[in-house]
Amino acid sequence: MRASLIQIAVDEGESVNSRRTRVSSLVRDVASRERADLVVLPELWTTGAFAYESFASEAEPLEGPTYEAMAKAASDAGVWLHAGSIPERDPEGPLYNTSLVFSPDGQLAAAYRKIHRFGFDQGEAVMMAAGSELATVRTPDTTLGLATCYDLRFPELFRGLVDAGAEMFVVSAGWPARRREHWLLFAKARAVEDQVYVLACGTGGSHAGVPQAGHSVVVDPWGEVLAEAGDGEEVLTVELDPAKVAATREQFPALKDRLLGLAAPRR
Ligand SMILES: O=C(O)CCC(=O)C(=O)O
């Protein structure tokens, strides 16, 4: 199975519409040139994850222009497409940071509303509502478990995905450069502790005055980094062996030793 991560640089000189058109072409080109089965895009690449003031103005209904463009790109290219996330405006009113995954015939396979919102008392944390449901996608090769950016800091979410059968975590992000080491550390930690592949696709460049971490990364279930991007716009392609997940879990069966419901310490 081949996967290509497209680390988009969100340049404020490019309009959202132009970027949508450019990224649609990129998905088609990359899928065919790299012979990819799965293409992955970053979080909120239409606006930039730190362009808070654009969230409301660029918010779209679930089946809005980005959905349409990405569904078409997936079916034109005949590829599984994790199309990153959009600022979604729910008909009831709230905004969500929603990732979209399409199957190779352009059908929506999953919509995942980011559970852990970033910003503490500002930005996304106050402007968007939190999702509450884990999301997995069964493909002919494997089961993908979905997560978005700040979610990466919360291992219990990923254990939930493992319990739901995930063998590859796809993390779509717009992580800042200032905490790049955390990003790389968490990507490796989640791969090792859950014995899965981690495909973590972030943004490059800089937007809203926030330099982006770039360094999209693919880690195998043993914790080996298979590929890592630099700071700018870049495509990473990796060959993945879905059977390696079961093989790793058999060779080193630590997941079987999980103890759930540990008692609280006695006072
Ligand atoms: O956790 C972090 O350091 C960054 C998270 C983030 O930028 C996000 O979720 O948008």
From TrEMBL:
Homology family: Belongs to the carbon-nitrogen hydrolase superfamily. NIT1/NIT2 family.
Known EC number: 3.5.1.68
Residue ranges of domain CN hydrolase in the record: 1-242
Source organism (scientific name): Streptomyces formicae
Primary enzyme class: hydrolase
InterPro entries named in the record: C-N_Hydrolase (IPR003010), C-N_Hydrolase_sf (IPR036526), UPF0012_CS (IPR001110)
GO molecular function: N-formylglutamate deformylase activity
Span of the signal peptide: none
Entry keywords, A to Z: Hydrolase
Superkingdom to which the source organism belongs: Bacteria
PANTHER family in the cross-refs: DEAMINATED GLUTATHIONE AMIDASE, NITRILASE-RELATED
Protein name as annotated: N-formylglutamate deformylase
Origin organism lineage: Bacteria, Bacillati, Actinomycetota, Actinomycetes, Kitasatosporales
